Amino acid sequence: MEPLELFTRREILTVSELVGRLKRLTEQSFDFVWVEGEVSGLRQPASGHIYFALKDQGALLRAVLFKHQAALLRFRLEEGQQVLCQGRLSVYQARGEVQLVADSIEPRGAGALALAFEQLRRRLEAEGLFDPARKRPLPELPTRVAVVTSPSGAAIRDFLHVLHRRFARVAVAVYPVKVQGEQAPGEMIQALQDLAAWGWPQVIVLTRGGGSPEDLWAFNDEGLARAIAACPIPVVSAVGHEIDVSISDLVADLRAPTPSAAAELLVKEGAELLRRIQAVAARLLRAGRRLLSDRRRDLRALARGLGDPRRILADQRLRVDDLLSRGMHALQAGLHGRARETWRLRGALWASRPDRRLAIIQARQRDLAFRLAAAGQGAVQTPRARWQALAGRLQALSPLAVLGRGFALVQDEQGRVLRRAQETAPGRRVKVRLAQGRLGARVEEVEP
């Protein structure tokens, strides 16, 4: 008989093992779920992934939308949005958190396309891209038009039919692009850049026929809107039917409800143009006649004010002759005066005799040189005699001179000069300075 085990065997798990089992159980049980909630804690780092949380009144669930799925969103996630997320539950093992790995997100209420359109519209409007003051005027009668559209669609046929019916002398260049699908915005942006670099078109028409909102969505691309705003050539947007409004329509310099309407807005009918030309010609003719009449009237008034030109010319000739005569007399008088002044200066120059003046100057120079030498010699000898006299007096008063006459200078050991015998005592040493040399001596006797 087997022994009875009172306690069950314990299974001890590590944290990683427990969280791993929870992860596998969660992913198997909730591999496809729809979750509704409010977006909270939204952030999108440089990796491109979108991290957020879904919350309601009772709970909060972490969620992530990876980069490749985020690129497919039709709208921009915003804080506080009510959304419906489809995905699978998982457990983030590093923190042991349950999170929703979203595959798709839909806004609650308005559709995703409508919400994306409204978000982009508000953002571009805030930047001023819809401002009428920014938009460029179209030429009155363009003769070179570029059309960016699908070459096989009905839009280009309708546009060309109406354009050439109204005015045949318009050159049209068609730039073929895709007008729906993921590649359509990039191709249309490239078309605008190429046409701007070419510089040939006076107007660019961006057009396509009608379709569903999904079919027309390429014309709501943000990059395309900015390319239209940056294009130096005026752009006409004619997308879909009259009820279809796209971001391209709002940014373009002119919005046409249909491709046919775009052609009608670009050019006037031939008959209407002819009437306008005739009206302008008639106004020019009337203005020219009125201007000519006014100029003739002004000319007659000027002629009356001027008088007879022949008489005026004769008076001017007499005045010129008088001025010439007075000028000649003044010139002759001036020449005579200059001649007299010249002869006077020549006489003064002859009288001054430069050679005589040079001799006088040389004599004065020699005299000054002699006086300067004499003064210099006296100035040197006088200070020298004074210096010699002072030196003799200084020599007579010098103690050394007294010593030279047989006297001596006696000093004690501290160098003090002894003037009386009482200033020393027998046995002390003294120093005796003679005219030449010194003596060291000892006092033997002192006589006061």
Please describe what this structure looks like.
This protein has 448 residues and is an alpha/beta fold. Among the domains are: 15-109, Nucleic acid-binding proteins (OB fold (Dihydrolipoamide Acetyltransferase, E2P)), CATH 2.40.50.140; 120-134 and 141-267, Rossmann fold (3-Layer(aba) Sandwich); 273-299; 403-442, no CATH class. Helices cover 48% and strands 19% of the residues. The protein contains 12 helices and 13 strands. The strands form 3 sheets. A 5-stranded mixed beta barrel has the order 1-2-3-5-4. Strand 8, helix 6 and strand 9 form a beta-alpha-beta unit. Helix 4 (154-166) runs parallel beside helix 8 (259-266) and helix 5 (184-198) packs parallel to helix 6. The longest helix has 44 residues, at 309-352. It is flat. 17% of the residues are buried. The model has no long low-confidence stretch (mean pLDDT 83).
Q: Secondary-structure blueprint of this entry?
A:
Blueprint: H1 15-29, E1 33-43, E2 50-55, E3 60-65, H2 67-70, E4 82-92, E5 97-107, H3 112-126, E6 144-149, H4 154-166, E7 171-176, H5 184-198, E8 203-208, H6 222-230, E9 235-239, H7 247-251, E10 254-255, H8 259-266, H9 270-306, H10 309-352, H11 354-397, H12 399-404, E11 409-411, E12 429-433, E13 438-442
Parallel strand pairs: 3-5, 6-7, 6-8, 8-9, 9-10
Antiparallel strand pairs: 1-2, 1-4, 2-3, 4-5, 11-12, 12-13
Helix pairs in contact: 4-8, 5-6
Quick gist of this model?
The chain is an alpha/beta fold and 448 residues long. The chain is 48% helix and 19% strand.
- CATH class membership of the domain at 120-134 and 141-267: Alpha Beta
By CATH, the architecture of the domain at 120-134 and 141-267 is named 3-Layer(aba) Sandwich
Query: How would you sum up the major sheet?
Result: 5 strands, mixed, barrel
Range of helix content = 40-55%
Q: Could you report the average pLDDT, rounded to the nearest whole number?
A: 83
Choose one word for the global shape.
flat
Order of helices and strands: HEEEHEEHEHEHEHEHEHHHHHEEE
Annotation, overall tally of beta strands: 13
Q: What are the segments in which pLDDT stays under 50 over at least 5 consecutive residues?
A: none
Oligomer: single chain
At CATH level 3, the topology of the domain at 120-134 and 141-267 is Rossmann fold
